Every structure is written in C-alpha cells, then in structure tokens.
C-alpha cells in the first residue's frame, strides 16, 4: 500500500474534463496508469503550458478553485504559477488513476530557504517507489524524478539529485555538469491539501517581498531548450546556448507574448 492515505481524498476531488485537458497538452489517453505515461504527461505539460504570473500584474486575483484554474489554463489556454499548475495537474493525475498527493516546499533563494508552503509539488507512487512531479516551478526538469537520495538523474542536458536531510526532509539539487550542484528547494513527503496553500498564494500576489510582483515572467520549455519573456527581455535557449533580445516597450511585449506563447 502507498505510504500515504490519498485514495480516500482523491475520490472527493472535483471532477475536471480530462479529454479537454489532454487535448491542451497534446497527449493521448491511456487506460492504465504507468510510469511511461506519467513521463509523457509531465513532459507534454511543460512543453505546452507556460509558467506565468501575468494575472498578478494585471490585478486579477488568483483563487485556488480548481474549476476557475481549469477555465484559465485549459479553456483559455493560459499558464499559471505553481499553485495553479501543480494543483491542476494533481487533479488530472488523480482522475487518470495515479496514486499521488500534494507536497509543500521551501525555495532556496538568496542563500537561504524561503517560507513554508511557498511552493507546491506532487509525489506519485509506483510499486514501493515515489516520484517527484513538478510542472509549476518554471525552469526545472522535463520528466519526474525518482525519490532516491543521492542518485544523479539526467534530464535533457542537466542533472538532478535529491538528498535526504537529518530531519527526514529532502533537498532537490540541480547541476549543469553533474559535479557542482545547487539547491532548488526543500520538501517533505507529507501529504498536503490545496487549501493549505491559500495564504502563500495570496502572499505572492500582494506582499511587497514577493518576487512574483517584481516583474512579469512567462516561460515554457521547448524541444530544444526554453523560451522566456520578461518585461525587458526575450530569452531563447537552444541546446544550452542563450540569446537575449531587448523588449523596448509594452506593445513589443504584447507582440512577443502572442507570437511565442499564443496569449
């Protein structure tokens, strides 16, 4: 049995239109959940649904209501930040029959760990093993990572490692060369509910210290790298090579937003 009691909670989740969701991420439906399918869902999600914080800068309140998020991300073909994207992806996985639950994480930034519940991710359970799933961090991995401490796992042209702390928590680390690893976030495997992230969702929208308020950002993985748009730059990364183009005004920002993200 799974090391967490998620089956009862999953049966109570609000239903979403799975077929519309799969069409949005250009993924076929399969009858039986399996690891290969999980990897395909994860990769297709980050390739087709951008991480973005535009609503914060437009003054549109983000509410952790699954139906509202579904309308925004799936029907209106927008993106979102972690609470929206991972919260919604969790519902998709649950309805497809995956055994999974939400977890909370603290992001490493400016030499220290951030606040509790400032990031949400997902753990998926397969045959006595757990996989870290995250389609809502921005620039992270394309496919789920096995929760096996110390194991170096390659992802496209980068490397990830998950280490266990003395407090039985986990640290996700990233490396560009498989030697020098930097911390991304700290998390535990304790099951969380989306409602527990409401305060931090509000914080990131309203508090002056929230980095999401400092600038607009839209980013999406591509088959060859990544494309990112901010208030001032368009950044394209192809096979590790980065090119930057200055954005001169808001009209140009809107043109690039439509051209590269369809928004």
What does this protein look like?
Helix 5 packs across helix 6. The radius of gyration is 18 Å and the shape is globular. The longest helix has 14 residues, at 35-48. The protein has helices at residues 7-10, 18-24, 35-48, 54-58, 66-75, 82-95, 198-206, 250-261, and strands at 51-52, 100-109, 112-113, 119-126, 129-133, 145-146, 152-155, 158-164, 170-175, 181-187, 217-221, 225-230, 233-238, 241-246. It has 263 residues and is an alpha+beta fold. Residues 1-8 have low confidence and may be disordered. Strands 2, 3, 4, 5, 6, 7, 8, 9 and 10 form a nine-stranded antiparallel sheet that branches. The chain has a five-stranded antiparallel sheet with strand order 1-11-12-13-14.
Brief write-up:
The protein is of the alpha+beta class and 263 residues long.
Calculate the terminal CA-CA distance, rounded to whole Å.
43 Å
- How much of the sequence is in beta strands? 25-35%
Report the principal-axis shape: globular
CATH domain class name of the largest domain: Alpha Beta
Structural class: alpha+beta
CATH architecture label of the largest domain: 2-Layer Sandwich
Helix content: 25-40%
């Amino acid at each position: 049995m799974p090391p967490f009691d998620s089956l009862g909670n999953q049966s109570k989740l609000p239903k979403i239109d799975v077929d519309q969701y799969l069409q949005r991420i250009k993924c076929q439906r399969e009858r039986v959940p399996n690891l290969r399918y999980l990897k395909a869902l994860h990769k297709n999600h980050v390739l087709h649904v951008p991480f973005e914080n535009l609503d914060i800068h437009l003054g549109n309140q983000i509410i952790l209501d699954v139906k509202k998020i579904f309308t925004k991300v799936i029907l209106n073909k927008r993106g979102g930040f972690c609470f929206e994207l991972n919260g919604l992806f969790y519902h998709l996985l649950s309805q497809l029959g995956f055994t999974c639950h939400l977890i909370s994480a603290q992001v490493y930034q400016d030499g220290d760990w951030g606040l509790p519940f400032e990031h949400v991710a997902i753990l998926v359970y397969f045959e006595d093993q757990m996989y870290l799933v995250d389609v809502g961090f921005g620039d992270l991995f394309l496919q789920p990572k096995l929760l096996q401490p110390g194991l170096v796992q390659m992802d496209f042209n980068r490397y990830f490692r998950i280490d266990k702390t003395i407090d039985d928590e986990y640290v996700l680390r990233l490396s560009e060369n498989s030697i020098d690893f930097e911390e991304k976030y700290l998390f535990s495997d304790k099951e969380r509910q989306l409602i527990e992230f409401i305060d931090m969702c509000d914080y990131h929208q309203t508090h002056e210290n929230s980095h999401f308020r400092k600038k607009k950002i839209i980013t999406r993985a591509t088959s060859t790298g990544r494309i990112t748009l901010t208030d001032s730059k368009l950044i394209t990364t192809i096979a590790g090579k980065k090119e930057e183009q200055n954005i001169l005004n808001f009209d140009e920002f809107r043109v690039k937003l439509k051209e590269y993200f369809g928004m």
